Fold each of these.
Amino acid sequence: MNSVDPWGLLTFAIDFSGTVGGGAIATGGETLVIDSHGNYGVVDHSGAGAGAPSGSVAAQFQYTNAETIHDLGGSSVSVGASLGPGVQGTGEYIFAQTYTGFSLGLAGGPGLPAEFHGVVEYATVRQNGNIWDDLRKLFHFLFGDAPCE
């Protein structure tokens, strides 16, 4: 629990992904994520589903109510749409067994000016650290064991 997220259930992320196909689609990407406990890492994800003919790359901001970044591993389902000529606005609703979320961003590539899609994805979390532990280590490196006064 903390003052930013009183329930301790929050992840924020920036996702970079690509999707290709027509009818049947494949997707994959990398997500840089941090949770309200200070854990940060990278999530590798890939999947398949159905959608309009397209080939695109996307950058999206993502929010979930997962307790930690570790909960983002495993299977999830995303349904969403993209709209616009050329560079498109894109959004997805994400749901998994232990969390839900959404993402909003921009996508671009050849395809229709509007598309809908649904995919089943599998994600692997690679934790890189905890920001609070990293700050504590930096403090000890800079100041040793000096008391805070």
Note: Residues 1-5 have pLDDT under 50 and may be disordered.
Amino acid sequence: MASATALPLCNFLYVTFEDTVRMLRNISATLWQFPESQLIIVDNSKPETQMANRNAVETLQMQAKAHITYVASSVNNRFVAYNTGLKQLIHPYTLFRTDDDIFEEAALRKLLPLGEKIDVLMTKYTYDGKDRSDRTFQRPIESCIFKTEILRRCGNFQTTPSSDWKYLEKVFQTSHVAYDETIVLRKLKHGRS
């Protein structure tokens, strides 16, 4: 799908909650493959964790000379965090990221830029180690690559359960959506103690 042109700039919208180590692992992996892109980190953690996360992100930002925006959120709601991040988007492509999944950013590089007629690219993903090829809006939002203009057109997320699927349904109904067998997301079972 991708052409031999220069790698396009992307927005990576991260939501994190009480997991500094994996947040830094994922951010570092993104910066390794996409050093010129923008990372937006919306932190839903407790205030004491937010302070440590902010310090760690600022250190990483200085070391990598990266474009990172850190936002401490007082509301622990992933969809509120997405809406906060959507206001910060500056590049043509947007990807959603979490602190507790694994992303194949090197594989992602090969999929960009999207074709001219593609607004959203769904990718194959794994969940709990099993391959998933769902071709519906009922999928992890992190398994999709979006042209930012599509997200702007669709507006904000609702902030109730399953709002990611409701949002994806709206996006898919109003966009040209394609599918690729490349695995970009390795989704882990959730549930933190």
Note: Residues 10-187 form a domain with the Spore Coat Polysaccharide Biosynthesis Protein SpsA; Chain A fold (CATH 3.90.550.10).
Amino acid sequence: MATLSASTSLSLYGRTELDTAARVTAALRVEPTSFVEIGGPHPDPLLARQGRVASRSFWIYEEPPGPGPDDGEGGYASLERLALRFGPQADVFKALYEHYEILVWVVVTVDRPEVTFSVKPELLARLARMRAELRPDIRVMRRALV
């Protein structure tokens, strides 16, 4: 598999109107890449132009890309970096889990459809301590025939 691109992000979605993105920032002491507070403009620009508002708060941290085009073996090095960055805060995530849905997204773009997705047990254990649900998304980029 040739990995064309890979990205990893951590998302926390508030379960109630009291579960704000600001609360996540304060707990994790990390600034998000993006966030929306409940009642703010809808994150979809089309819906925001229609006057729709966000029905819940969310907080997103996108792991910066690593060196090299493949971002490491199989394009999953960014997942490892994200788990290393946030893994030591397992107690914070345990408290946040009561109020937030915690998701880790991995989006990998490859050049052929025969792809497997594997994650080492140690990395899965770190994500589990973060109370994070892993959401892999493998996208196949079809190259034009010349």
Note: The two ends are 21 Å apart (CA to CA).
Amino acid sequence: MNLRPLILDDAVLQQIARVKEFARAHPIGIHELFRKVGANQPVGDDPHLGLLIPVGYRVVYSYEQQPAGWTHHLSVSVDEEGKWPHEQAVIAILNAFGIEADLSKAVAVFKEDEYEAINVIILADSGRPKP
């Protein structure tokens, strides 16, 4: 099995901080989330919520209200058709976002076939958006 490297250097960590800050300043309420889903308008279409991480990872992060409460939603894909990100890479990226990476506590972990992405939805600590 060939695993691609994941580079989480200072430049990437700064990009992660920028994306996370934007997402927290622009939380997606449940009605807006349902509207986007119904209109087939992926949250990842907003360039402020995504970043590329070497070598070949695409990450989208949003802070959104799900039926279970306010959540961190992370979507990770790679730039090679037919390939998926490795679980350990997803966990490392979650950690880089400052999110507890215990997947057993996730509200949902699912594959998104259309984008060949792994999605992780984890309850946020406070249960409501922070400024």
Note: Strands lie at 50-53, 57-66, 69-78, 108-112, 117-123.
